[in-house]
Specification:
- The protein is mainly alpha-helical.
- Helix content is 51%, strand content 4%.
- It has eight helices and two strands, in the order ααααβααβαα.
- It starts with 19 loop residues before the first helix and ends in a 6-residue tail after the last helix.
Length: 178
């Protein structure tokens, strides 16, 4: 049985208008391929990862991430990046995410509306991330928070969703300021 600390929940954006399951699976497979490439570039076997991490990362779990059989939480992805000593962005599939921050890649989230909707289970990961971004930017007073490309990428990973669908999904819930 897998320890509770290894369990990962994945939320898929509902009503996406696309085959969300195949999008998530495809993304997980590409993410897994990046994880495998980084591990192999460091000449590590799955067993080496388990041993060198002191058992923090079980070989069977890392293998399931690499095959795309299991979703990786943003927290676990960050921990793996730290273990491999690479930026988190290096673990993300390149074809999905632009590496530069572009002005058109930002979304303005209505923080007040998000707070009022914070009991909605679909929005809990977004609410946590917005709180974290506000903390990082030391910006607690704003009614609007601009989410940059990197922020959007983190939301997509934590929700198991394609980043190009996030804007429409947020807009449908009245969480974007135009």
């Amino acid at each position: 049985m897998t320890p509770a600390s290894e369990e990962v929940e994945t939320a898929v954006l509902p009503d996406a208008g696309i085959d969300a399951d195949s999008e998530v699976e495809s993304y997980q497979e590409r993410l897994g391929a990046r994880l495998r490439a980084v591990r192999r570039a460091q000449r590590l076997r799955l067993q080496d990862v388990e041993e060198r991490s002191g058992g923090r990362f079980k070989a069977v779990v890392v293998g399931s991430y690499e095959r795309g059989d299991r979703a990786v939480s943003a927290h676990k992805l960050a921990a793996l990046a730290a273990f491999y000593e690479v930026p988190v962005a290096e673990l993300l599939p390149e074809e999905e995410w632009p590496r530069t921050r572009r002005r058109e890649g930002t979304l303005a989230v209505d923080v007040q509306q998000l707070r009022e909707s914070s009991e909605d289970p679909e929005l809990i990961p977004l609410h946590r991330l917005v709180q974290h971004v506000q903390w990082l930017r030391d910006d607690y007073s704003g009614q609007v928070l601009s989410l940059r490309t990197d922020d959007l990428r983190t939301i997509a990973v934590s929700m198991g969703a394609p980043v190009d669908r996030l804007g429409a999904w947020l807009d449908e819930r009245g969480l974007l300021r135009h």
